[in-house]
Sequence to fold (343 residues):
Amino acid sequence: MDFNNEHLSRFRELIDKSSSIVLIPHKNSDGDAIGSILGWWNLFQNMGKNVTVVVPDEVPENLRWMHGASDILVHEHSGEKVVAALKKADLLMFLDFNNVKRTGDLADDLAAVSIPRVMIDHHPDPEDGIAEVLFSEVSVSSTCELSYHLINALEWNHHISLEAAGCFYAGIITDTGVLSYNSSNPRTYLAVADLVSKGIDKSVIHRELFQSNSLGRMRLLGHVLCNRMELMEENGAAFISLSLDDLEKHGYQPGDTEGFVNYPLGIKGIGISAMFSEKEKDKFVKVSFRSRNEIPVNSYSEQFFSGGGHVNAAGGEWHGTLEGAIQRFRDTMPDFARKNRNK
Ligand code: 5GP
Ligand code: MN
Fold:
């Protein structure tokens, strides 16, 4: 993969002279976000650098096996430690997001530090001025894959330890739905092949990622598919809604609803899926969208739910009730679906 030579040498220079690097992913971190920060964390450890990972909120249970996860500072629980780490830092690296708003409340603490920033990300339209050095590439499957190619371009491949390889592999696998979407480029498989050749135990990683569900999550999925999924067949759309009450009844833990939004796309004729998940009673709803083919749910989310993301996987927010969010979807989806019928 080609990178801008000036960016590569500036990045190398920043790493060489930094004595304390802080790595940050987006809030509601997924496999690609945690995989990429911990992949880099392991790589930098191997290079003898002093490096800290700060995440906005709790790391989902199925990602905590990654090496370095127990050293992560969680901003929502350890705000003071995070501020201390940021004060000491001389380089910030943002991974898997391109707008500081995506770090939630951590954004205020980030605004207070003025040190160089590097961003590595695969979402469209990075925020102006978000970082001094930008590695922004939408054609790549995941931030983990982009990181892998970047590490090769820097000739640091030999620093990818077994632990780092496991993290990067996990991010590629989760962001591509186990190599089903965003993975038609052969270079993704070359990256995977090299990571596997580092000696990772693929079956252990897949078990940790996909076969370590709690009974609560499995029951919640059953409840969602039976009682909380509605079709708008004439629009080729479907949605899932989950109230705080539903979540609490099933002993909800962060990450438990990860991937639920993909299920409606498994129904014949459904090309657009949404999930509305109440986070604060009658006040705040997190929204997720998925689509098939070229249907751009990122622009839909940007227009109607203050969000964004990728063409086929996007997210947004609704400040109001769960019913209000659903009504907004019912009101706006038919027109969007009509305009994108042939995609
Ligand atoms: P998810 O539905 O898994 O939360 O997110 C799907 C994709 O949309 C991810 O790539 C994520 O980074 C992006 N995304 C999720 N929520 C938001 C949001 O509130 N704003 C923006 N701009 N992107 C989001
Ligand atoms: Mn990603």
DSSP finds twelve helices and twelve strands in the chain.
